[in-house]
Amino acid sequence: MKLLLLTLATLLLLSQLTPGDAQRCWNLHGKCRHRCSRKESVYVYCTNGRMCCVKPKYQPKPKPWMF
């Protein structure tokens, strides 16, 4: 019984540690991906050439032009 519980705990832990997690960008508020989800938009590009997908609430607000 203890072996079964140890095996299940190990499998649960390994399922949480997924390899190939997306690289973080934009002050750790975005992720470098090939495609952004519907709720994200591209503001900058990552160093690996992928898009930095950031939620709109973390993007800076555009300032009006002052003449």
Q: Which features does this protein show?
A:
67 residues, alpha+beta, four-stranded antiparallel β-sheet, 4 strands, 22% strand, elongated
Topology of this structure?
Blueprint: H1 2-16, E1 24-25, E2 30-33, E3 41-45, E4 51-54
Antiparallel strand pairs: 1-2, 2-4, 3-4
Describe this structure in words.
This protein is an alpha+beta fold and 67 residues long. It has one helix spanning 2-16; strands at 24-25, 30-33, 41-45, 51-54. The chain has a four-stranded antiparallel beta sheet, with no helix packed on it. A hairpin with a 5-residue loop joins strand 3 and strand 4 (51-54). The mean pLDDT is 83. Its main location: secreted. Pfam families: Defensin_beta_2 (PF13841).
The count of helical stretches stands at: 1
Helix and strand run: HEEEE
**Would you identify the regions where 5 or more consecutive residues have pLDDT less than 50?**
none
Rg, Cα atoms, Å: 19 Å
Query: How much helicity do the residues have?
Result: 10-25%
What characterizes the major β-sheet?
4 strands, antiparallel
- What's the count of strands? 4
Oligomer: single chain
Q: Which structural class best describes the helix and strand composition?
A: alpha+beta
Mean pLDDT across all amino acids: 83
Percent strand equals 15-25%
Tell me the span between the first and last alpha carbons.
76 Å
- What would you call the shape? elongated
Strand arrangement within the widest β-sheet reads 1-2-4-3
